[in-house]
Amino acid sequence: MLITSRRPSPATTGPEAGEKTVTEGAGARAASARRPVEVADARAPIDRAVWRLAAVLLLGPVLALLDTTIVSVGLDSVGHDLGSPLTTVQWVSTGYLLAVALVMPLTGWATDRFGGRAVWMTSIALFTAGSALCGLAWSVPALIVFRVLQGIGGGMIQPVGQSMLAQAAGPGRLGRVISASVIPVTLAPVAGPVLGGLIVQDLDWRWMFYVNLPVGIVTLVLAARVLPRTTRAASPARLDVRGLLLLSPGLAGLMYGCSSRGWGIALVGVVLIAAYAVHALRRRTGTPLIDLRLFARRGFAAATASSFLLGGSLYSAMLLLPLYFQQVRGADAMHAGLLLAPQAVGTAAVSFFTGRLNDRHGPRPLMLTGLALALLGTLPFAFLGHDPAGRLLTLALVVRGAGLGIAMVPGMAAVYASVSTADAPRAAGTVNVLNRLGGSLGTAVLTVVLQRGLAGHAGAATAYGHAFVWALGLSLLGFVPALFYPAGAARAKG
Asked: Is 88's pLDDT higher than 90?
């Protein structure tokens, strides 16, 4: 399926395009959804203003992802210092996860109501303020409350930033810009444990949160100068309160149930999400939090399905890999993070050309190539019971990282190429929700497989190998939606 397109005028490119689309409002969204997607020429140069915008917007995900991985290393130190058992301290991470699940569906409505610039900067400010309060926490309950505040801010940083970037770059050039955004996703699991280990070893655990303050402040200062000034939509949609009361608790219940293997809570989450689906499809007026009718578009449905499965593959492996290096190969948390560096190197190496190839040749061949490489890079880990050489595992991680890097770019770009610019904020919220859900479900499944393997006395290395066989299955499933991607690039018509 080729996406028809028109060459945009110069006035609709660059950051100003993001400002224009935000002011169109809900009324324009319906009209723009019936028009062909405007795609910039894939060979058109990207001006410096867009690159500056991308650089600032990438600071947000870096801040949030680093914090998540740093904190996971230091929970034991927190419990020891504040005199709480690990079962209670675990809510420091769980509370953050639930807060993210609660606010992420609000991305589209908040952007329409207040403008992307205001929402993104408010999210950074809340995250930074929450970090300061976490560092000052006097007890574990106080720390959990402040982590929830952090999550309220962190939940919308990535989807709002992605939608602003998509509106500024235009679908035809989005691949080149998004190539840079996949690097923080892969660098954070490497840098986080290393930085967290150094902080816990040489400083107080409170510096896990204080380290966010200078980055957050610098990000706000740069955002105030670089982000385009947007106004709220001329006719912003009213908040779908009923949908919010169904969807947000449903997502939180499903993610928490999967992460804690509380299947009863997960089932309640599924029921609430199903009730939201019925509500959203029956809704005749206004705009739902997540517009399920977007899934009627082949490109959007394929891209979001890929995001769901890639989330399962990426996040579950990011749990298994450091645990394997720690429990089987005897590495500490900091060195386990360093052993993941080859995967980040593989992703960084392909990011320099993947975006341009996507813009010129289309997403399907890149998606299939990326999945094949990710599958190949995961294969040696399915044979951990045979004690493969460390050099082979290092090479496999490079190949796996390259495959994930190649697959992520066309996946994200296809989401925004399949919707109008006015629908970009809601599309961003939807794809990020599904990515997190995929990560939660994938991690839960692989954790159960690993625990059963360890309980069966098959040997730790063999148990990890069995878990990675399931990770291979997730990679194989990714080929199904990839076949429904557009076969060629969008062509700009004169």
From this structure: no
pTM of the full structure: 0.80
Q: Roughly what angle, to the nearest 10 degrees, separates helices 116-135 and 140-154?
A: 160
CA distances from 229 to 113, 142, 224, 446 (A): 14, 36, 9, 44
* Closest by Cα among 435, 433, 442 to 474: 442
**Model confidence pLDDT, tens digit, residues 422-463:** 788 888 888 888 988 888 888 888 888 888 888 876 688 889
- What's the rounded Cα separation, in Å, for the pair 290 and 287? 8
Question: What is residue 43's predicted lDDT score, i.e. its pLDDT?
Answer: 59
CA torsion sign for 473, 475, 481, 486 is negative
Instruction: Tell which residue, 190, 187, 130, 122, has the closest CA to residue 156.
Output: 122
CA distance 40 to 421: 13
CA distances from 99 to 250, 331, 489 (A): 12, 32, 38
Classify burial at 326, counting beta carbons within 10 Å of its beta carbon; exposed 0-12, middle 13-18, buried 19 or more: middle
The pLDDT-based confidence of 1 (bands split at 50, 70, 90) is very low
Q: What share of the chain is helix, strand, coil (3-state, %, to 5)?
A: 80, 0, 20
